[in-house]
Design goal:
This protein has about 270 residues and is mainly alpha-helical. It has helices at about 10-35, 45-100, 105-130, 180-235, 240-265; strands spanning about 130, 135, 145, 155-160. Helices cover about 70% and strands about 5% of the residues. The strands form two sheets. The chain has a two-stranded antiparallel sheet.
Amino acid sequence: MVSINTNVGAMIALQNLNATTSQLQTTQNVISTGLKVASAKDDGATWAIAQNQRAAASSLDAVKDSLNRASSVTDVALAAGSQISDLLTQMQQKALAASDTSLDTASRNALNTDFISLRNQINSVVNNASFNGINLLKSGAANVAALANTTGTAVLTVVAQDLSVGGANVTVAATGTIGTVTQAGLMIATVQTSINNVSAALAKLGTASKSVSSTLTFVGKLQDNITAGVGNLVDADLAKESAKLQALQTKQQLGVQALSIANQAPQSVLSLFR
């Protein structure tokens, strides 16, 4: 039947053209965003999984910040501790020199002055060994606890080491001198003990620093893997989408031509009335 009221061919051509246009719009959105799943509308389940993983990766930034602060605090403490160890070595040399019974008073006093200066420098180094207001070397200093996971249930602790004069590790008294042969002789052993204690304290800080660095490296790799996993879920294959775009554009052009042909069909009725 030939009808000018109902053009079935045109309706079918229009439906196909609309479907092609819709697919073309979807492909263009994928190419413009680079995402095959840009919203929950595209794929609700995949989008939800990706969002959860994005949140996990973002939370790891806070963990990395905490570990970086702990690493900086520990590095400052280690640098200061090494300086203190060097000062103690110099103090030992002064004490050994002052134990020489053949020294005259002027020489002994000069050595004692140097010794006291070195002793006072230790506390100066300790007081300046702060990062972000945190000092691991002061007497009574608190430990540093860095985040080790995204739930806050695990921490990595860097134990404070008291390196102040007269403290647990530097056993030289705050008023210690080498003004006499006897004092110098006793001070040699005291300084040696302090050197041993400081070396042990620095070893503990070094181990903690290595642990923080290792954890930081792991967290960075974990974050990268999570980000890559999210990409696998939602990123588009642009090479594939580009080919699809070309095909849809051609299909759209053919659809327009098919609709045009279908719309011309009723014109054939006119020939019946000639």
